[in-house]
Amino acid sequence: MGVVSQMPVAEGKSVQQTVELLTRKLEILGAEKQGTFCVDCETYHTAASTLGSQGQAGKLMYVMHNSEYPLSCFALFENGPCLIADTNFDVLMVKLKGFFQSAKASKIETRGTRYQYCDFLVKVGTVTMGPSARGISVEVEYGPCVVASDCWSLLLEFLQSFLGSHTPGAPAVFGNRHDVVYGPADTMVQYMELFNKIRKQQQVPVAGIR
Amino acid sequence: MSGVRAVRISIESACEKQVQEVGLDGTETYLQPLSMSQNLARLAQRIDFSQGSGSEEEEAAGAEGDAQDWAGAGSSADQDDEEGLVKFQPSLWPWDSVRNNLRSALTEMCVLYDVLSIVRDKKFMTLDPVSQDALPPKQNPQTLQLISKKKSLAGAAQILLKGAERLTKSVTENQENKLQRDFNSELLRLRQHWKLRKVGDKILGDLSYRSAGSLFPHHGTFEVIKNTDIDLDKKIPEDYCPLDVQIPSDLEGSAYIKVSIQKQAPDIGDLGTVNLFKRPLPKSKPGSPHWQTKLEAAQNVLLCKEIFAQLSREAVQIKSQIPHIVVKNQIISQPFPSLQLSISLCHSSNDKKSQKSATEKPSPEDHLYVLEHNLHLLIREFHKQTLSSIMMPHPASAPFGHKRMRLSGPQAFDKNEINSLQSSEGLLEKIIKQAKHIFLRSRTAATIDSLASRIEDPQIQAHWSNINDVYESSVKVLITSQGYEQICKSIQLQLNIGVEQIRVVHRDGRVITLSHQEQELQDFLLSQFVMDLKVAVRLWFSFPVTSVKIFQKVMFYKIANGVIFVDHSKKCSGIKWKVETLFIKWSCLCLHLALASYDFFQNSFQIFSRNFDLKCLQINYKHKEAITSKGVLFLKNN
């Protein structure tokens, strides 16, 4: 199970430098670099033609990919269900142009390095929207456990060890269901929320932790 | 009953005289009873001569006759007159009938007598038995059944014979027609074995393995043409076939994959020499037509090409420590440092030119037929995998690929899980592993055999297991000393020969891993030899002396293993004697050890002293002079 959080940029430094700081900290800790990762997200909204006369706001649908699950594609609504599909889903979206239209300039992604520290998987990435870097995302995953309530405290401790004061609280994904099995969909929901938050901030962020 | 008065019974005789008439006054006139002669006459009249004794028919007639007699015996004219029908005339005297009957009887008797006397002479009359009718057949119904069955069977047999006749006629017709086979029937036969389709006015066929799961891009189409170069005037040749197949030009001839292992690495300049010796064509089945053999050979060539293409592709793509070399039609790789494995595709076309040049005789040890066969099996395995139900998509709209791979998208598999699904080993790697194992196994066998032939005591036995894996074999090695087999059972080794190393499991549980180096195995086995020797020698040391004979100059000990002669000049007794005997025993032991050690150590004492028991060897050396100076001669029993 894993937790995704945003790391605020340190004062007076750029995004890249902050990322370098973090990665150096991790390497000192003893984590080994294991390549790169990438998580991206595209937004679609339901076409106006399907709305009918009610005039309700079109729902937003996010189609995301995660390099951790290379053969899968995730599609989710804001508070709704998350669909895990094959990569052919992208082709399907092209066919569904009439119903789902891509929102302008909506592609947001995070790229960075992947570190492995025993059972922990840490991914530090730069969130970019177009050409500009908007923030830093940190994902920590504890492989062996899939039940949130059992290992949340362990994760918190680990996060504190290298994030220091920027440690986030319990993610909203868990909510009340602490004993439910954690899945990849939950990770994607967390990313989606993170991206939305970053999208709302117009400049390089100073905003707090979720 | 007592007390009751007896009843008076009076008896009257019934012989009363017959009443003739009863007078008016009641007086009865009695008839006079018949007198004796009258009675006799009456009775005589009642005899019926026509009645036999005991015959019923005649009794009835006799009863009738009686009634008539009674009628006559009444001799009352009144009665006779009333019965006018009575044939019996009123007789004159009662003996009349008797007399008549007797007279007729006499007549008949005379006649009979006369006949019998004539018959006796046999001159005029003879007796002949009456011919009897044949016995009425009691088994009548059964015979009828038999006859009816016979008839019906004959009818059925007739029908069957007619049918058989027709069949034989048609068979003979076919036989005749065989010589004049026509194109269509031959085409039908071809269709039974190969896939054909009609394109325009050409008939094309498919001899590739694509329908069996191959992914090789060769088209593999052959054309079926009519054989029209026949001169009807001349006699039709025996093997004439109205059909001919034209195979693609690059599939002509025959091919095979040659896998061989060479010890020394050749020069780079030698690469590129293409080995093309013609293996004799596999004999086709005697009844199969010539197009069948042609097509099968072409298909084999295609398969060999596919195998070689797959191997060369992998040789180039896969990264290994020592890169594989692909030259023309050969792939060369080095599984072990001093070993070279070469896989080559030998394709010989049927041209007459090349037949002349192929004079090389293939050396049989060179070509590893097992590996060639395994290559064929592996590529077929690969073909089957592409067509297996795991690969075929369910539902039909899903993409091709392994079933679990299709699920990896919707179930969000991560990289580790995906890697575990995909088989990582290619054809080349598998073949190289198999070749390594074969080589290691044969070398181990050679090592054990050479040791066994070189060293006579102790003896080494190897029991190879029959059931082996492609990548693993095992052998059980026993080292024993002659005469001490039951006692020295401790040296039993199980060798598991893998792909690159040999694992030795000792009887006491120790596991040692040896590398592929030949010398390591030899050293190890020799060390085991000496261990066994030590045990044997220790036992031998405690030999019992069976008899001692003392002569003037020589002492003679007889022991289980041989005879010891000791030369001594003075007598000794007591403790000195014991020391003396002990010393002799010890010397013999060392001598035995020295002899045994000398056998297989030869000249290389220095090398082995590191591995073996130093003390043992040193004693050996130290006492060598002592032995000779003491003059002990030991003759060992063989």
UniProtKB/TrEMBL annotation, chain A:
GO terms for molecular function: transcription coactivator activity. Its main location: nucleus. One of its GO terms (cellular component) is mediator complex. It is found in: Nucleus. Signal peptide: none annotated. GO terms for biological process: regulation of transcription by RNA polymerase II. Pfam families: Med20. Keywords: Activator, Nucleus, Transcription, Transcription regulation. It comes from the Eukaryota. Belongs to the Mediator complex subunit 20 family. Component of the Mediator complex, a coactivator involved in the regulated transcription of nearly all RNA polymerase II-dependent genes. Mediator functions as a bridge to convey information from gene-specific regulatory proteins to the basal RNA polymerase II transcription machinery. Mediator is recruited to promoters by direct interactions with regulatory proteins and serves as a scaffold for the assembly of a functional preinitiation complex with RNA polymerase II and the general transcription factors. Component of the Mediator complex, which is composed of MED1, MED4, MED6, MED7, MED8, MED9, MED10, MED11, MED12, MED13, MED13L, MED14, MED15, MED16, MED17, MED18, MED19, MED20, MED21, MED22, MED23, MED24, MED25, MED26, MED27, MED29, MED30, MED31, CCNC, CDK8 and CDC2L6/CDK11. The MED12, MED13, CCNC and CDK8 subunits form a distinct module termed the CDK8 module. Mediator containing the CDK8 module is less active than Mediator lacking this module in supporting transcriptional activation. This is Mediator of RNA polymerase II transcription subunit 20. The gene is MED20.
From TrEMBL, chain B:
Its main location: nucleus. It holds the Pfam family Med17. Keywords: Activator, Nucleus, Transcription, Transcription regulation. GO terms for cellular component: core mediator complex; mediator complex. One of its GO terms (molecular function) is transcription coregulator activity. InterPro entries: Mediator_Med17. It comes from the Eukaryota. It is found in: Nucleus. Component of the Mediator complex, a coactivator involved in the regulated transcription of nearly all RNA polymerase II-dependent genes. Mediator functions as a bridge to convey information from gene-specific regulatory proteins to the basal RNA polymerase II transcription machinery. Mediator is recruited to promoters by direct interactions with regulatory proteins and serves as a scaffold for the assembly of a functional preinitiation complex with RNA polymerase II and the general transcription factors. Belongs to the Mediator complex subunit 17 family. Component of the Mediator complex, which is composed of MED1, MED4, MED6, MED7, MED8, MED9, MED10, MED11, MED12, MED13, MED13L, MED14, MED15, MED16, MED17, MED18, MED19, MED20, MED21, MED22, MED23, MED24, MED25, MED26, MED27, MED29, MED30, MED31, CCNC, CDK8 and CDC2L6/CDK11. The MED12, MED13, CCNC and CDK8 subunits form a distinct module termed the CDK8 module. Mediator containing the CDK8 module is less active than Mediator lacking this module in supporting transcriptional activation. This is Mediator of RNA polymerase II transcription subunit 17. It comes from Prolemur simus (Greater bamboo lemur). The gene is MED17.
